[in-house]
């Protein structure tokens, strides 16, 4: 099993919650704070962070897909 | 049971707990109704899971121009038609575009870059507190000046005007203001910020008003919209952070084991960050509910919320929902609390939340470390609460310490 991060950019309201809980997987672009996925295939030790990022996203713009 | 009036008074002796009726409805009546100031009866949603689902549902709208919108106060109802489209009254996709234009200063990395300045602000306030009279009022000495100093720095508003801001922003949001008082206070803030925005457009500096000025000049934002937005940032960031600092301190003083834990681990950023989340959850200071209107029929728990019905989401209900937070009435700084709704939920979740978190992390990790003997200077029952605003807080917090 592996986890893949899916990010629905048009939904993103740039709250930055993903960056706060998973700074290795997400960043915010400088001009408007919209999220950037740094790594869409987290390693198993990053799964908890990835799940938390999806859970705290206020716009439900982050989804994890098991592959 | 008659429809309960909302907002509801808390039980005396339990000032931190949501009103008992809120908790009963969370358990027994997840899609009930309340009666608000204008006599209308919006739906009342308090469960954590329901709020998560609905606050991200495209069938729910924040368009306060629509008839039937359950306004917070009479003043808000009267001013709503005159407020231009902005992040607080638009739905996606327009909301998304607007939010992205004002979000820059609240980005995590820009807020993190402010941390050393916020630390300086708080250290120097603690220096002054310790050098001054003992006992002292923590609300005046630390709670109110921290957010005022920080937000006025970010906006680029001179600190000399802080008394003017505190008075007028309180009047704008208080339930005790008449509509006219609220309107006049809002106008006074708007006029001041409008003049300052004009000045920043001519002579820009490194601050948010100058950034907004550049967007106005580039045609990306209207002048009026910029003034409304600046006023909203100022008010939203002001009383809320102040209340969290003083109420958080009071809650910790009432829970000495938790206070000791936080003091001992104040150099552990992860522990402090989670402690802030738990205090946000436990206190949930925004206590008058966030308001929406249905744009389509929605089935929920066997009832139909109809197109055009008002909906009130009580955030403390969700944050004290036993299903999500077992033992919710206990302050437990070690519990996973990150999923709380203290900043709301959905696309309208607080714009300034990252800034608030840094302010609170610095405040809580500094205050009790530097003043380990901090104690109440009056009995708990005599601490005066201010319950009438959108966010509750303390009028004063008399504290003492041993030198």
TrEMBL record, chain A:
Name the UniProt key words of this record, in alphabetical order.
3Fe-4S, Electron transport, Iron, Iron-sulfur, Metal-binding, Transport
Query: What cofactor does this chain's UniProt record say it requires?
Result: [3Fe-4S] cluster
**Which Gene3D superfamilies would you find in this protein's record?**
3.30.70.20
Q: State the source organism's domain of life.
A: Bacteria
Key word Lyase present: no
Q: Which PROSITE patterns is this protein grouped with?
A: 4FE4S_FER_2
**What InterPro entries is this protein classified in?**
3Fe4S_ferredoxin, 4Fe4S_Fe-S-bd, Fe-S_cluster_ET
User: In this protein, which residues make up the domain named 4Fe-4S ferredoxin-type?
Assistant: 3-31
Function recorded in the entry: Ferredoxins are iron-sulfur proteins that transfer electrons in a wide variety of metabolic reactions.
Name of protein = Ferredoxin
TrEMBL record, chain B:
Which source organism does the UniProt entry give? Kineosporia mesophila
Q: What is the name attached to this protein's record?
A: Cytochrome P450
Family assignment from sequence similarity = Belongs to the cytochrome P450 family.
For whether the record's keyword set contains RNA-binding, the answer is no
Keyword field? Heme, Iron, Metal-binding, Monooxygenase, Oxidoreductase
Xref: Pfam families:
p450
What CDD domains would the database entry show?
Answer: CYP105-like
